[in-house]
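Write out the bound-state structure for zinc ion.
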Amino acid sequence: MRLVLFMVALAAASAAHAQFRIPSFDLNKAVESVKNVNKAVREPSEAEEISIGRDVASRLLGAAPLVDDPALQRYINQVGRWLALQTERSDLPWQFGVLDSPNLNAFAMPGGTIFITRGLLERMRSEAELGGVLGHEIAHVLRKHHLKAIQKGAQTALAGDALSAALRERGGAQRDKLIAFGAEMYSRGLDKSDELEADRLGVVIAARAGYDAYGLPAVLQTLQAMNPQDSGLALMFKTHPAPGERLDALGERMQPVLDAYSGQAQLADRFVRQLRR
Ligand SMILES: [Zn+2]
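---
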């Protein structure tokens, strides 16, 4: 249902030749509140969302530290924040970081912390491609995909009261369980429908930010052309639908948008300069 609403909103926006409009959150909330009627546990507040994301992020950073290159980290933050500014949650404390890992992957924490690996960055050829990938991760945050998955999983592990406390307070055994579950989710992955939704929304965000809308499809083509046995792809392929399937799904639903915004900026030179420094 959410996807249908998304496409209706998108169609309305393009029919009017208006700027892209990411579908209204109130509309989604209405749908969600109907779905969640029987859930005893309340939605986490924005402050809780941010604090959970930061705790999960510090746990993930224990496994792979940030690349020690302030200029590169600054550049990724400039691009990421420009993309996030195009969204309804521009006021979140967005931060972006390059993880020092040869694997190809990117991760979004609840509340707006986003990591991309050095391995994935090194396979990209333009800022439009970076914009497409960061747009996909930003979309996960906008739609609270991870937050909802953490909450859903934690609900079975923690009773209602314990979960409320774990959401509210940092520290303590319940909180530890919640964050451990959250971190583990990044090795299991989200539902396929969440991933495909993030692809569609990511394309829209990148296009709104002025990038060639084919940035994300170009990265997916790069992944598709790689040897699937490449060890750097293992986690990405385990947690995401296959690149070919993602490309087909994008083509099916987003072809007119991709074509309409294919002439926008690629900024290949700027990207290569930033990476070489
Ligand atoms: Zn994803």
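---
The chain has two domains: 1-41, 46-145+189-276.
The pocket of zinc ion is lined by residues 136, 140, 195, 198, 240 (CB under 6 Å).
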